């Protein structure tokens, strides 16, 4: 790829540059049939087209997927005229911001007009104005590693801000000053933490300083945009790195204030570590237990499982620190925080439930639970049982190997008991031995509250005694009915 940048700069090493170039060439060859075809159509219409931003960065890293980002001097209405006859599908969701989306073969494509955008200091929405050159477009991008372009179809490399050098050094810098960049769009501060977590890059010191000084600017950004960035960070390969950056730069106070609050608390089981460090370790360990890719529910539950501790901390007379019922308080706090961040009701419910249940296993002790208690554990966890297994195992961060092994063996024993009971009793779909219609027929009553009470009683009998023969179930129901006023 010829370099259209006239600035000369020294790369960290020739080898790193050649590796990046080889990766980029390989990736660009893969997407060329579609990308070059589209570029020729733009050129025939009198416009230019360039692969840009994250697509170029990922090509250089050898991880370009099938989502392709392009930039052009064509205005959105001209872009629509060009892509409509060519694409398999076209959407205009982002057209107010200069972006036209389309699908061609296996590729999802976004074409954005050269632009610059800035936030009014009191507004949550960016003001969009179109630019006239690719250099003007690149300077408004968030980080130098995202401010590179490849002009198509000739494959001319444009890198006015030394993004390739920063990519080789694995560092995040802004094209202009970080203060100007973050003033234009405060969400870029969160993106710094997200990219650090996704790419395992370091953030330049001047960028960290600006994040710390300008953290309060995040207040003008909508909860939905903050939530989406937080999700990307949490689902990344190195979430601990991004979360630390959020906490250390005060951004977490505006996103997840419960997290930095844990730094001041001492964990009753691990006095050599505060709850904050314990939480990050639990998150790491939960990630290690994932089987089918990143699990947002599990990761959020691991991150939030102990947030009730600051509110429940008590100093006991014997010198110990207690956090009684922190799981109940934490579940309520989790629901409140996730609701404020506009998470879906289902996600709020699932994560809150895991936080509420994460200590239940510790009542298992030496394995002396009755079958009834095991059934209730499974019933209360419901479809979250597998995640609860993972969260509970992850919550053991003790350095005492003997204690850790004992806890692991105890949980192994509980899982084995659950498996045996599930095989015998179909625990996943526990229901009373008598359904509502049978209850009404046996008691000779019609629909109403008493049927619900009877059903609940029979469910308790099922949990307590396991599957019952029909005659025994009928006898228990009649005994209960006779005792009602």
UniProtKB/TrEMBL annotation:
Could you tell me what this protein is called? CCA tRNA nucleotidyltransferase
Looking up PANTHER family in the UniProt record yields: CCA TRNA NUCLEOTIDYLTRANSFERASE 1, MITOCHONDRIAL
- Provide the HD domain boundaries: 275-391
Entry cofactors: Mg(2+)
Indicate whether Magnesium appears among the record's keywords: yes
Q: What is its EC number?
A: 2.7.7.72
**Keywords on record:** Magnesium, Metal-binding, Nucleotide-binding, Nucleotidyltransferase, Transferase, tRNA processing
Q: Which InterPro entries match?
A: Bact_CCA-adding_enz_type3_sf, HD/PDEase_dom, HD_domain, HDIG_dom, NT_sf, PolA_pol_head_dom, PolyA_RNA-bd, tRNA_adenylyltransferase
Name the GO terms of the biological process aspect.
Answer: tRNA processing
> Which terms in the Gene Ontology molecular function aspect does this entry carry?
CCA tRNA nucleotidyltransferase activity; metal ion binding; nucleotide binding; tRNA binding
């Amino acid at each position: 790829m010829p370099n259209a940048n006239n600035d000369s700069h020294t790369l960290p090493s020739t080898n790193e540059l050649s590796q990046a170039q080889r990766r980029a060439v390989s990736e660009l060859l893969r997407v060329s049939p579609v990308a070059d075809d589209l570029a020729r159509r733009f050129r025939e219409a009198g416009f230019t087209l360039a692969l840009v931003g994250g697509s170029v960065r990922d090509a250089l890293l050898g991880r370009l997927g099938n989502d392709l980002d392009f930039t052009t001097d064509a205005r959105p209405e001209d872009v629509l005229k060009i892509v409509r006859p060519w694409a398999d599908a076209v959407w205009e969701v982002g057209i107010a911001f200069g972006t036209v989306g389309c699908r061609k073969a296996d590729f999802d494509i976004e074409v954005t007009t050269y632009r610059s955008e800035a936030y009014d200091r009191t507004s949550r929405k960016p003001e969009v104005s179109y630019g006239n050159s690719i250099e003007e477009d690149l300077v408004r991008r968030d980080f130098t590693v995202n401010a590179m372009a490849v002009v198509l179809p000739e494959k001319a490399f444009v890198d006015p801000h030394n993004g390739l050098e920063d990519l080789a050094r694995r560092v995040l810098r802004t094209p202009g000053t970080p203060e100007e960049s973050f003033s234009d769009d405060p969400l870029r501060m969160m993106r710094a933490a997200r990219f650090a977590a996704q790419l395992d890059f370091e953030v330049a010191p001047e960028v960290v300083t600006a994040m710390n000084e300008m953290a309060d600017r995040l207040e003008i950004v909508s909860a939905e945009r903050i939530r989406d960035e937080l999700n990307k960070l949490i689902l990344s390969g190195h979430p601990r790195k991004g979360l630390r950056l959020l906490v250390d730069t005060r951004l977490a106070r505006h996103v997840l204030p419960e997290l930095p609050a844990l730094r001041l608390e001492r964990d009753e089981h691990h006095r050599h570590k505060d709850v904050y460090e314990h939480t990050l370790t639990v998150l790491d360990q939960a990630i290690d237990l994932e089987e089918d890719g990143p699990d947002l529910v599990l990761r959020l539950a691991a991150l939030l499982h102990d947030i009730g501790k600051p509110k429940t901390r008590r100093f006991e007379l014997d010198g110990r620190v207690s956090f009684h019922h922190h799981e109940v308080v934490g579940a309520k706090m989790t629901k409140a925080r996730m609701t404020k961040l506009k998470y879906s009701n289902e996600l709020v419910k699932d994560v809150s439930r895991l936080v509420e249940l994460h200590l239940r296993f510790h009542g298992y002790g030496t394995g002396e639970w009755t079958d009834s208690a095991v059934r209730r554990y499974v019933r209360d966890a419901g479809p979250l049982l597998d995640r609860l297994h993972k969260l509970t195992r992850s919550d053991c961060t003790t350095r005492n190997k003997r204690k850790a092994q004992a806890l692991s063996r105890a949980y192994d024993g509980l899982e084995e008991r659950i498996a045996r009971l599930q095989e015998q009793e179909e625990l996943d779909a526990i229901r009373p031995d008598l359904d509502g219609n049978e209850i009404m027929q046996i008691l000779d009553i019609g629909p109403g509250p008493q049927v619900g009470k009877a059903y609940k009683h029979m469910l308790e009998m099922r949990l307590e005694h396991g599957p019952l023969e029909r005659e025994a179930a009928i006898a228990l129901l009649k005994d209960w009915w006779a005792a009602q006023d």
